[in-house]
């Protein structure tokens, strides 16, 4: 009788231990995946050029329209709701154009895509010392910046502030009127 009782006690303990291990594993997996909230990533997908007009190296200027596909990659298990923002295009560190980004949400584990139109012009530059050289080289170097600030919403209760920053560089090939070497960090 005594032996049987001990055996069933040991069996019971083994069940409890197995259950605890199982629960711990589930909680750990949950904590490492679902609960780990990461910053979404915003970047340019593709950029094309329209309404292109530039001067030569002795009277340098540029005016053009960039049509850009923007992607907001949200790897979280909850949606990312971001506020109104803007995307700025810079030449030599100075702003030459801007586009508004209207507040929206990127759904859980999806990449939201939208298009923006940005008119850029060298007339917005106060100094353009290197513009003649860049035009002579045939490639106009540009960069872009944006910051989307918002919250990742998890399971209707957890809201965590997150932001997504864009930092891309590209060159406008003045011969082919296309964007080359688009790189985003
Ligand atoms: C840009 O070009 C399109 C046609 O390609 C034209 O309809 C539009 O008026 C132009 N915009 C500007 C600002 O020149
Ligand atoms: C540059 O453009 C200006 C104005 O269009 C023109 O007068 C000048 O001759 C051009 N210079 C060269 C080197 O092509
Ligand atoms: C966001 O932008 C839209 C469109 O420009 C505007 O109507 C709205 O009032 C803005 N919302 C906020 C909170 O600024």
Please tell me about this protein's structure.
- By secondary structure, the protein is α+β, with helices and mostly antiparallel strands.
- It has two domains: 1-33; 41-184, Immunoglobulin-like (Sandwich), CATH 2.60.40.
- It is 21% helix and 54% strand.
- The protein contains two helices and ten strands.
- It has helices at 2-32, 131-137, and strands at residues 41-54, 62-74, 80-82, 85-91, 94-101, 104-106, 110-121, 139-154, 158-173, 178-184.
- Strands 3, 4, 5, 6, 8, 9 and 10 form a seven-stranded antiparallel β-sheet that branches. A three-stranded antiparallel β-sheet has the order 1-2-7, with no helix packed on it.
- The N and C termini lie far apart (71 Å).
- One 2-acetamido-2-deoxy-beta-D-glucopyranose binds next to loops.
Secondary structure elements and pairings:
Layout: H1 2-32, E1 41-54, E2 62-74, E3 80-82, E4 85-91, E5 94-101, E6 104-106, E7 110-121, H2 131-137, E8 139-154, E9 158-173, E10 178-184
Antiparallel strand pairs: 1-2, 2-7, 3-6, 3-8, 4-5, 4-8, 8-9, 9-10
The structure holds 2-acetamido-2-deoxy-beta-D-glucopyranose (3 copies).
Overall pLDDT score:
90
The number of strands is 10
Largest sheet: 7 strands, antiparallel
**Which ligands are bound?**
2-acetamido-2-deoxy-beta-D-glucopyranose
Q: Which H/E pattern describes the elements?
A: HEEEEEEEHEEE
Gross geometry: rod-shaped
CATH fold label of the largest domain:
Immunoglobulin-like
CATH level-1 class of the largest domain: Mainly Beta
């Amino acid at each position: 009788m005594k032996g049987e009782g001990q055996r069933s006690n040991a069996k019971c303990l083994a069940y409890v231990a197995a259950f605890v291990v199982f629960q711990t594993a589930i909680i750990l997996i949950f904590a490492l995946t679902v609960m780990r909230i990461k910053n979404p990533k915003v970047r340019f997908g593709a950029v094309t050029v329209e309404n292109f007009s530039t001067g030569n190296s002795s009277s340098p200027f540029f005016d053009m329209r960039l049509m850009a596909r923007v992607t907001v990659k949200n790897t979280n298990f909850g949606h990312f709701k971001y506020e109104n923002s803007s995307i700025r295009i810079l030449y030599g560190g100075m702003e030459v154009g801007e586009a508004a980004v209207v507040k929206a949400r990127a759904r859980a584990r999806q990449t939201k895509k939208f298009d923006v139109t940005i008119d850029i012009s060298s007339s917005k530059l106060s100094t353009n010392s290197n513009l003649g050289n860049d035009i002579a080289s045939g490639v106009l170097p540009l960069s872009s910046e944006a910051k989307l600030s918002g919250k990742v919403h998890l399971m209707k209760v957890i809201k965590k502030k997150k932001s997504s920053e864009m930092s891309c560089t590209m060159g406008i090939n003045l011969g082919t009127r296309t964007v080359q070497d688009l790189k985003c960090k």
